[in-house]
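Title: Comparing notes on inverse folding

I've been comparing how different people in this forum approach sequence design from structure. To keep things fair, I'm posting one structure and asking everyone to reply with a full sequence. Here's the target:
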């Protein structure tokens, strides 16, 4: 019975570590470079709206902003 319990504990520990790692990956910061030379640091991954062509991102204060996709030079994970 003890090997069954230790197996369950191991599976639980692995599942918890995977959960924490996936949550941490979502909270990464990104840097957006614009064509006019501005550098913007975001909190979380920016999202692109395919219909409107806008890039939505959250700044370090938690405020939502949008940029035209054609104004963005590159987006890099920090």
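Reply #1:
Here's my take.
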């Amino acid at each position: 019975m003890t090997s069954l319990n230790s197996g369950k504990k191991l599976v639980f520990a692995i599942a918890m570590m995977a959960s924490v790692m996936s949550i941490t990956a979502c909270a990464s910061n990104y840097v957006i470079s614009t064509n006019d030379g501005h550098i913007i640091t975001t909190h979380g991954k920016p999202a692109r709206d395919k219909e409107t062509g806008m890039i939505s991102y959250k700044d370090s204060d938690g405020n939502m902003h949008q940029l035209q996709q054609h104004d963005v030079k590159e987006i890099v994970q920090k």
